[in-house]
Amino acid sequence: MSIVGLGGWITALIGLLYVLVVWLSPVFGFLFVPLLCYSFYRTVIQLTQVFTGMRMLRVMQEYPWRILWQVRRGLGDHPAAEAKGIWIELPTRGDSNEGIPLVFVKHHRASWWMRRIGGPRTDSGLKSQLDPLWFAGDSRFLGVVAVSGRKSGTPRRLHFLYQPSALGKGGDARKSGENVSAVDLDRARRAGAQFPSERVTLN
Q1: Cα separation of 191 and 203, whole Å?
Q2: Vertex 82, ends 122 and 113: CA angle to 5°?
Q3: Backbone angles phi, psi at 152, to 5 degrees
Q4: What pLDDT score was predicted for residue 88?
Q5: Is 202 within 8 Å of 180 (Cβ atoms)?
């Protein structure tokens, strides 16, 4: 759907340019500027979503889904997180109950999640939509979160989360990368993590 959307916005952008250049006088250009700008903006956003979708696909090909209940989350900064922002505390591996916070580093298209993570005054009905929570990944590096569809029971509202250090974007790797086995490290790289091996202490 992201690829279809990208094709649609590119077509709209080219179509507007064609109508403006071929069919209309330049004096009407000012009428098309807002439409052209918006089409260009949506094209860039949609392209970003295609890349994000490809990243999520790599994660889901490498890690199985886990269904989690009553996951800790919050809007305030987490003291153990690599970045500031709203967070969800998630397990590292399929056989581990250890929780490490993953932060919504980029808030684009995260408003749905922000409203449901909420705070003390957030409606309990909204909060309950995050139980159960689907998670595929390793919270020391990256992962995909989702919620259950109302009718199908399959994951939807997929969102890509990552540790900044796992994508070479800074962050304190010591908070999420200590005592990582070579197997975990290779798996994270296959899922799309990008970091120099010297930043991670192997067992």
Answers
A1: 20
A2: 25
A3: -80, -25
A4: 92
A5: yes
